[in-house]
Amino acid sequence: MNFSTFGFSPTLMEGIEAIGYQEATPVQESAIPVILAGRDLIASAQTGTGKTAAFLLPVIEKLSAMPHDNQVKAMVIVPTRELALQIDQQMEGFSYYTKISSIAIYGGTDGTVFSREKQALTEGADLIVCTPGRLMAHLNMGYIKFPELKFLILDEADRMLDMGFHEDILKILSYLPKQRQNLMFSATMPSKIRHLAKQILHDPFEINIAMSKPAEKIVQKAYVVYDTQKIPLIKMLLKETVMKRVLIFCSTKEKTRQLYHELKKTGIKAEEIHSTLEQAARENVIIRFKSGDIPVLVATDIVSRGIDIEDIDMVINYDVPHDAEDYIHRIGRTARASAEGTAVTFINERDQQRFGAIETLLEREIEKSPVAEEYGETPAYNPKIRRKDEGRKFGGKRRKGGGKPGNPGRRKN
User: Fold this and answer.
1) Can you tell me the distance from the alpha carbon of 19 to that of 91, in angstroms, rounded to the nearest whole number?
2) Which CATH superfamily groups domain 3-208?
C-alpha cells in the first residue's frame, strides 16, 4: 500500500517522500487507519517493522488540524534515551514541512538541557518524546500541566515494565486528561502488558504482527562453555576474524565494564555503552561505532532495540537473553538490508534452559560449535535438565565437550 492511499495532507506527504518512504509495512497498513479514526490501539510488533511511523504519521496528521496554542498535545513515552532520540529524529523528518514542533526529554544531560526542556514543556511543544524518569523529574517540580493533551503513546511498553517503570507510568497518567486517544506498542504481549492495557486503554483495537524469525542470511552458532571460558573465546573470535563492526551484548553493566577492560588490555579497539555513562558519552560512542571508528562495541540491552545501525558483521551474546524474543532483537542488529552476518551465543550451565526456549521459538536447533581443547573441558548441553539436577543425572560428573547428551565428551590427551 502506498502512503498516498492514507489521504495525508500535502505537507506531511512532502516529509514522507523526502525521507524516501513509499510502501507501508503491515503494521503501518493496519495501525494508521485505526489511529486516524480516533480509536485506542494496542499493537504487538517487534523492532524493525516500522511501528514508529505507524503512530507518528497519523498523529502528525491530526495535530496539523489543531490550533497551535502553546500546549503539549501528544506524548510518546519510551524506555531509553536512545529510543527517545531516534523517534525525535524521525519526527523531525516527517514533520519538516509542517508547523508541528517536538522535543525529546530524557535523563543524563546537564542543567542547560533541563532548562530547555522546561521551556518547551511550559511554553508548548506540540509533541514530546520522553523517558519516564526524566518526565517525572519535571512533573515533581510542579510547573507542568497537560490540559490539552490528546494523544498518549507508550512505545516498547514491555521493556518499560521490565525496567521497573510501571509506577512512574501510572503516576504520569494521573497528570493527564481522562479524555485522550491511547496507543500502546509492545514487541511482546505478556500478561503484565495486558494488565497495563486494561488500566490505560478504552475498547482498544488490537493488532498482532507475528514475530519474525531471524533473517536467513544470519549464520547462528553457539558455544557451550563455563563462564571463565567466555572472555578467552571472545578474544579468539575477535582476533581470528577481520570484521568492520562487532556488537557484544552482556546482561549487566558490571559484565559490560569487565569485558570492555579485558578487550582493551588485549589491544582490541573497543568501547562500552550502558546506563551509567552520561548521555553525551553514549551518543559519542554510537556515532563513532556507526562511522567505523570503533570496531567493537560492548553493550547492555540498551541498544538491542531502537538503534538503527545497518552494517554490523557479528553479534555476540556474552550471556543468553532472558527472553527468547530478545534473542531475535539482539541478532537482528546484523544481516540487515542486503548484508550477511553472524550471531554467536555463549551458553553456560545456568542458561541452557533459556537457550532451549530460544530454539523452541525458532523451531530449529542452533549449531553448537566445538571449543578448542586448549580452553579446557566444557559442559554438556541439555536444556531439558535443570542445573541443580545435572550432577545427579550424570553420575555426579561433568561431561566434556559441547555435544548433545548421549554423545561422548572430549577426552584429554
Assistant:
1) 11
2) P-loop containing nucleotide triphosphate hydrolases (3.40.50.300)
Output b/e per residue, 231-253; b: 16+ Cβ within 10 A. Answer: bbbbbebbeeeeeebbbbbbbeb
| Sheet strands (E) in 263-392 | 270-273, 296-299, 314-317, 341-347, 367-368
As a residue count, the chain comes to 413
* Under 8 Å between Cβ of 277 and 109: no
Element (H, E) at 223: strand 218-224
**Residues paired with residue 152 on neighbouring β-strands, in sequence order:** 75, 182
Helix, strand and coil in the chain, % to nearest 5: 40, 15, 45
pTM for this model (two decimals): 0.66
**What are the domain boundaries of the chain?**
3-208, 218-393
Show pLDDT as tens, one digit a residue, over the chain (413 residues): 899 999 999 999 999 999 888 889 899 999 999 999 999 999 987 766 788 999 999 999 999 999 888 899 999 999 988 889 889 989 999 999 999 999 999 886 667 888 889 988 888 789 999 999 999 999 999 998 899 999 999 999 988 988 889 999 999 999 999 999 999 998 778 888 989 999 999 999 999 886 667 777 889 999 999 999 999 999 999 988 777 889 999 988 899 999 999 999 989 999 998 877 777 788 888 889 988 899 999 988 766 555 566 678 899 999 998 777 778 878 877 755 546 789 999 999 999 998 998 998 888 899 999 999 999 999 999 988 765 444 333 333 333 444 433 333 333 33
Q: Is the Cβ–Cβ distance between 83 and 153 less than 8 Å?
A: no
The H-assigned helical ranges of 177-278 are 191-200, 230-240, 253-266
Rounded Cα distance between 121 and 134, Å, is: 12
Backbone torsions φ then ψ of 178, nearest 5 degrees: -70, -35
Check if the beta carbon of residue 172 is closer than 8 Å to that of residue 144. Answer: no
87: left (phi over 0), alpha (psi -120 to 50) or beta: alpha
CATH architecture of 218-393: 3-Layer(aba) Sandwich (3.40)
Q: Which three cell numbers stand for residue 401?
A: 565437550
- Identity of residue 254: E
* 3-208 and 218-393, same CATH topology: yes
Assign 345 to helix, strand or coil: strand
